[in-house]
């Protein structure tokens, strides 16, 4: 038995405020009995990178680094596993990354997004990097791996995930509509089936969480939401668009 908390975080331009919110949400999740907390893609900053290395490297976080140390301390203090997406700075390179922190505060798994959709087509390849493989880690609650956002729509990556014979797939992502609206009915009508179909292709119970633009991010209208989808593509639980908060799900 494992209880997941999918944390739909409100993201603002204030990284310290975002981190403090994540700490509070992790603690609330622990109080509610969660074993694992999943935060969205780029949860500390949002995807506010603009393909200008001077700007984008300045918002990158090192792994390990100060923000990870704060979350690791929470993981240790509350006996939590914490999964989080962030823009990772590694020297003069930037990656779209997800890490899984264990209750001992260690980085149990680090994954770098492989598909390039998190930056522009002409972003400097010497700066903007990508991962090369999907790896998994065995935890007390199952074998788990990450995909980030658009990775879920890459056939080769999804087939690789299927071959890993996972218990759970974690998918932090950032999603908005081009017109900037937050439209639950449109999501259900146009998008939900596509995500469920990708999970069915992966053949693994999948947890997805999208961050919520707090209203101050330039050109970012990510509308939140969280979902638990079964290995056959059935939506088992969901958190509505447009609201910050926690979706708690208990799985055997």
Give a concise summary.
This protein has 252 residues and is an alpha/beta fold. The protein is built from 5 helices and 14 strands.
Describe it.
It is globular and about 45 Å long. By secondary structure, it is of the alpha/beta class. Helix content is about 25%, strand content about 30%.
What layout of secondary structure does this protein have?
Blueprint: E1 2-8, E2 10-11, H1 15-31, E3 36-38, H2 53-59, H3 66-78, E4 81-90, E5 93-101, E6 107-112, E7 136-139, E8 142-146, H4 155-163, E9 168-173, H5 184-202, E10 206-210, E11 212-213, E12 226-229, E13 235-239, E14 245-251
Parallel strand pairs: 1-3, 2-11, 3-4, 8-9, 9-10
Antiparallel strand pairs: 1-14, 4-5, 5-6, 7-8, 10-12, 12-13
Helix pairs in contact: 1-3, 4-5
Highlighted features:
252 residues
Q: Which of globular, elongated, flat, extended, rod-shaped describes the shape?
A: globular
Number of strands: 14
Provide the gyration radius in Å.
16 Å
The side-by-side strand order for the widest beta sheet comes to: 6-5-4-3-1-14
Q: What is the number of helical segments per DSSP (H or I, 4+ residues)?
A: 5
Largest sheet: 6 strands, mixed
Q: State the distance separating the first and last CA atoms.
A: 4 Å
Output the helix-strand order: EEHEHHEEEEEHEHEEEEE
* β-sheet strand percentage: 25-35%
Which segments are poorly predicted (pLDDT under 50) over 5 or more consecutive residues? none
Global mean pLDDT: 96
The helix content, as a percent range, equals 25-40%
The helix/strand class is alpha/beta
